[in-house]
Every structure is written in structure tokens, then in C-alpha cells.
Amino acid sequence: MKLYPIFADLHGLPVLVVGGGSVARRKAQMLLGAGARVSVGAPQLDEELAHQAEGGEITWRCGEFAPDWLEGMWLVIAATDDRQLNARVAAEAGKRRIFANVVDDAEQSRFHVPAVVDRSPLMVAISTAGAAPALARRVRETLEQVLDHGLGALIALAQRHRARIVQCRGDLASRRAFYDWLHDGPVLSLLRRARPQQAERVLLDALHADKGVPRAGSVTLVGAGPGHPGLLTLQALRALNEADVILHDQLVSPEILSMARRDAERIDVGKRCGGRQVAQEQIHRLMLAHAREGRRVVRLKGGDPFVFGRGGEEITFLRRHGIECEVAPGITAAVACAAFAGIPLTHRDHAQSICLLTAHGKDATDTLDARMLGAERQTLAVYMCVERVDALTERLIANGRAAETPVAIVENGSLPEQRVITGTLGDLPRLTRRHAVKTPALLIIGEVAAFATEHAWFGERITEPSPSLSLAQAALA
């Protein structure tokens, strides 16, 4: 090893940062976070450091560096833009056997400040011994995705009951099994859901149980977003990597599924307009059966589970049968498709509200509120619209929407095969047929849809001639 890894307890100890700029500020903030008594030495301080000095959070040593600043210090960081001064600070610190770090100069440093993943009290430090700090940051990014944010609370809880765990689980094998259960079972799940008292009760009940700790099954409703793998949330990614069973819709892209745990059982449950369908009751039964077998089940849906996704029905069913359930929200199609088409759903000059609608089902358009359909300065985002375009167009125009209202159809939003077709409301049925629009497709209706002609940045764009002036052109006129 070139470096000896060490975690230093600096609580209440005096440390020095030489420099008064943004780099010095970042170093001072980290030291303050560790409980150190921070002195900052420099002729001048940036605005935030000056504010902290006035408030007594740090001590300001005003002026040029002097060796006597180091007296009584436990470590020092040289963070000026003067390489010679930084080297002098390090040399003076070495004479006094004080550990020194020189920012961006590994050769002058006696200790290095690593890239950190903070799940306090769990801390992960990453170092390349100064050889490639950018790569250390990349490793940190990966670990940020993998390490659950509930781990800190779990470790703190285990630490609080450590003596009791050792007493009740005397042999090492039993203790290891208990800690595995803490991580994989309901305790971490409860901490994720901000229920620390219930988590502690579950831990204590399991600790004092005569038998071992049976693994309880659970279900997580996960939103996969519109399909682009980069839009998957960290919470969703963790759930996929912990799953034993994944019940997924056909709308979930192969790229998303490839990010899941390799040995997880995958069950295709359909749910694509015009494709194979699995009855909702059968999906309920599958989730329940696997959870009762002690397996971690992920119900993976396109978009968001609670936006036209029947997630509400599923969580009600699971709760009724006593199954632990979490929800990992996804980016819903309206938000994702609009963004990938360059369309702002709201705009202070053109739209102050958004209405999410579904055109799926025989009577879907007939039950919509007429006043809502005709409201001005409102964007309509219509899900599952392809099969009901004619009836929807007729109803919108009948209820006050002008035939010249801009529209945009986003097909396969966020995917490589995305198409954005723009035109007007009156021409919508013809556009859909002419360009053979297929599901999945989202329809955006309102003045903001015209922005797609100028702001599109992803995928193919098809613009139909329109007699109306585009919004972007009007803004320049």
C-alpha cells in the first residue's frame, strides 16, 4: 500500500486551513462537519468564509502565512493558489510532525483527502493516492448508486443494541445470520420509510424470539420511467438489484431489465395496449404467492406506478393481505416525453396548469369534465391516446378548444426510436393515421406544444405545415 487508510477523530481538535477562496471553503466545511475546531488563515476570505468567521464558526487568522500558526494544530490543509506557499506550509508542518495536505499536490501531502460516500455512521473513502482523482470520483458515483441511504440509520440502530445482540446471539454464525436479516429484512425497509420506532420494535422482537429470524417477503412497486435507462431513479435501481422476483410490464425496456439482479426470476405480465394481457387479479396472486414464500418481489411498471399504473389497486391488495410494501416512484411519461421533445409543460406566458388524462377505455373521453377540456392556458397530457384520437379530438373542439391549438404526439418517448409529430388539434386524426402512430405514445395539447418545432433535441421530429406562427417565432417578432 502506498497509503495507510485511516479515519481520524478530529472532534474538538484544532486544525488549520491556509487559503481563503472556494477550495479552502470546501475543505473547511468538511472539517467542520467532522467536529474540528477550524482556523482559516489568509489575507482575505471569500464571502461565505467571512460570514462564518463573523458568526464564530471558524477562527480567521488574517494576514500572510506565519509558521507560528501551526502551533497546537493536529493537521493542516494548504489550499492557496500559490504552489510555493503551499510547499512552505507543508515543510513547516513536517518540521512539527503535523500531518499536511496540499490540494492537488500528492507529492507534498502527508495525508490525502479521499472521495467520500457518506451514510453516517457508515463512511466509505476512495483514494487513488493522488494518481487519478477523477477516477476516484467515478468510483464514488457508482457506490452512491449502490449503497442505500437507509444504511446509516440501520448501522446506528445496530450499534445502539450491539451489546444485546452479542448477548442474545452468542455464537458467531447466529450473529452473522441476524445481521444479514437486519440488512435484508423488514428493519431496513422500515427505516427507509421513516419509521424508526417501528423498526426498533421489530429488531427487538426478533432478537428475543426463541426461533431464528424467518425472512419476511415484501413487494416494491417500482416505476421504470419512460424507458431511457438514465432516467431510472437510484431507489428503483437498488430495488432491482435486491429483487428475487421481478414482475414486469412489456413497456419496460430491455435496457432497464438488464440493470436488474442477474439471477432474479423475471415474469412478463404484459400490460401493453394491443399486446398480450395478464389479468390484474392474476398479477395480484403472483405478488402475494412469491411474497408469502419470503421472496423480495419487484412489481416493475413503465412510468410511475401511481399515474395510470394501477399501483393504488396493488398496494391496497397487498396491505389487505399483510404484505410489506414500498413504492419507488418513476418519472411519468408526461414529464419525460415533454422534456425529450423540448416542450415545457408549463410556461408563464402560455400555460399555468397541467391536466393528465387517459383516453384508454371505451368511455374514457365521454366522462371527462367539459370545462376542464376547454380551459384556456392549460396543457393537456393524454396517455394511451392512439385508439381514441378521433373521439378525443371531436370532444375537445366541441368543448371550446380551437382547431388551431398546437399539438405534439411523442411516440416512444426517450427511446432511440422516439418520434415527435407536431401539428394542430383539428388535424390530429389525420396526423395519427398518416404517420402510423403506435403505442406507446403521449399526446400533448396546448400552446406549449408549438415549442417542439424549435426546441426538439432528441430523436426524429416531424413537423406538419401550420398557418399559425410558432411561439418561438412569435417571441422573436
From TrEMBL:
GO molecular function, one term: NAD binding
Top EC class, one word: transferase
One Pfam family in the UniProt entry: NAD_binding_7
Enzyme Commission code(s) on record: 2.1.1.107
Keyword Transferase carried by entry: yes
SUPFAM superfamilies for this protein: NAD(P)-binding Rossmann-fold domains, Siroheme synthase middle domains-like, Tetrapyrrole methylase
Keywords (A to Z) from UniProt: Cobalamin biosynthesis, Lyase, Methyltransferase, Multifunctional enzyme, NAD, Oxidoreductase, Porphyrin biosynthesis, S-adenosyl-L-methionine, Transferase
Catalytic residues (UniProt): 249, 271
InterPro entries: 4pyrrol_Mease, 4pyrrol_Methylase_sf, 4pyrrole_Mease_sub1, 4pyrrole_Mease_sub2, CobA/CysG_C, NAD(P)-bd_dom_sf, Siro_Cobalamin_biosynth, Sirohaem_synt_dimer_dom_sf
Pathway(s) annotated for this protein in UniProt: Cofactor biosynthesis; adenosylcobalamin biosynthesis; precorrin-2 from uroporphyrinogen III: step 1/1; Porphyrin-containing compound metabolism; siroheme biosynthesis; sirohydrochlorin from precorrin-2: step 1/1; Porphyrin-containing compound metabolism; siroheme biosynthesis; precorrin-2 from uroporphyrinogen III: step 1/1
Residues annotated as transmembrane: none
Ranges where the Sirohaem synthase dimerisation domain occurs: 151-207
Domain (Tetrapyrrole methylase): residue spans on this chain: 219-428
Catalytic activity: precorrin-2 + NAD(+) = sirohydrochlorin + NADH + 2 H(+)
Occurrences of domain Siroheme synthase central (ranges): 119-145
GO-annotated biological processes: cobalamin biosynthetic process; methylation; siroheme biosynthetic process
Family from the record: Belongs to the precorrin methyltransferase family.
Protein name (Swiss-Prot/TrEMBL): Uroporphyrinogen-III C-methyltransferase
Source species taxonomy: Bacteria, Pseudomonadati, Pseudomonadota, Gammaproteobacteria, Lysobacterales
Gene from which this protein is expressed: cobA
